[in-house]
Amino acid sequence: MSEDDNNMEEYPTEIHDYLTAFEKSLGSVDEMLKTMMSVSRSELLQKLDPLEQAKLDLVSVYALNSMFWVYLATQGINPKEHPVKQELERIRTYMNKVKEIADKKKASKLDKGAASRFVKNALWEPNAENGHTSKSPAKGKKQQ
Asked: Domain locations in the chain?
């Protein structure tokens, strides 16, 4: 009997696919952590602007607390009744604040000069020679 056959007997076969997916996910997390740990934190932060630094810090602390949540669950402790739940909520609040800042940064800005020129050129102006406009009159006004 192989080692896999012994392991199959230790847990219900219905959860085999879930456990396989969980093991694959753990491998992915391990690879990402190795990649992140290969570069020193100060070296990594020097390459990022302050907003990106905040995002990196928040993602790191959220991932760490999420792994602790999973650890508590594997130990039979209800993580919903543990202070880690409040910590995750606090981190999510800061993640939302950073997202708002990033969204404001991406939002289009009003070019006041261009808007002013657009409005000025769109308005009706009397022509000095005949009292009429060189532009089209505003709606509802008749040219004479």
From this structure: 13-47, 48-105
Provide CB contacts within 8 A for 53, sequence distance 6+: 45
User: What tokens does 61 get?
Assistant: 């602390």
Residue 72 near residue 82 (C-beta atoms within 8 A): yes
Cβ atoms of 102 and 51 closer than 8 Å: yes
Residues 104-128 have pLDDT tens digits of 888 777 778 887 887 888 776 666 5
Write out pLDDT tens, residues 10-47.
778 888 888 899 899 989 988 988 888 888 888 888 88
Distance between CA 131 and CA 137 in Å, rounded?
Answer: 12
Neighbour tally for 52: CB within 10 Å: 14
Short-list 61, 56, 54, 51, CA closest to 102? 51
pTM over 0.70: no
Amino acid at 91: I
* Residue written as token pair 């905040």: 54
- Calpha distance 34→100 (Å, rounded): 30
